[in-house]
Amino acid sequence: MNKVKTIFRVFLLISIFSLTSCSSEKTIVEEIVEEEEEVIEEEVVVVDEDTNFVWKNWYLSVPIDRADGSKKATSIYSDEIISGSLSSEEKKYFYKNADDSYTFYTKFTGFTTSGGAALDAGKYCRTELREYWKGVKDTDDNWYMSSGTHEMESTIKVNYCEGNGQTYVAQIHGKQSATLSGSPATVKVQWKNGDIVIEYYEKPANGVWTSDYDEKITIGKVDNEKFTIKLRVKGGKLEYGLICETKSINIEYTFLYDYVSNGYNFDNYFKTGNYFKWNDDYTKASEVVLYGVKTAHY
Fold this sequence. Notes:
The chain is α+β, with helices and mostly antiparallel strands. It has two helices and 18 strands.
């Protein structure tokens, strides 16, 4: 009987050891598989946007010949920006910095968004973003002031601006149509020798929205410090805001003009960057750093 008990105990111990061993091996295998899955998951993650830029909502214009005979500026789209596949010439005008900001350099080259231009011919060059408000690559897909709320916040620093010291860093631009006269640069935010000046079109006496009827208001002095300009159209009314911590400026959204009540009916898009108001020569330049731009439509 004792011999039987001893044999049974030995068998029981062997069974327990086998089960424990199998369980341990299974746990080890599972851990290895899980680790491999985690590695695979990390390898397939693709970051296609910068933290402060949603590139699918923009395209970029640089003052380089498009080389299609039109003498128009070159357009650079989101996939090229995300992949960093710009040409060496394009990278002279637009490039990413170590802090994830982007430098927008420009000067007068004669290649504008509307075609070739000579010096002093009333046209200017830019390195500037144009909004695709729904991420759709279609310049006919824009927003109306009469419906919803539309906001843009651009955080900017002007490193230098030669010539007359003037560059536009943010805009609300109206889209030309077959039924409306004019193609208004409705709201333009200008950096002017350190001042932030808002130029905005008012209701025209002749019914054509042009700069002949614009007003100007200086809202703060930022010099070459980092600042955030905010533009909002809410219920058809234009509002602005300005923040510059270094200069202790913190202007909350402030009403400026009621567009819809004054008959404005263009569809619109935001712009931001470095639209250099200089065409006296081919040498003077302007450099703007864009730290981020955020838009909202609701």
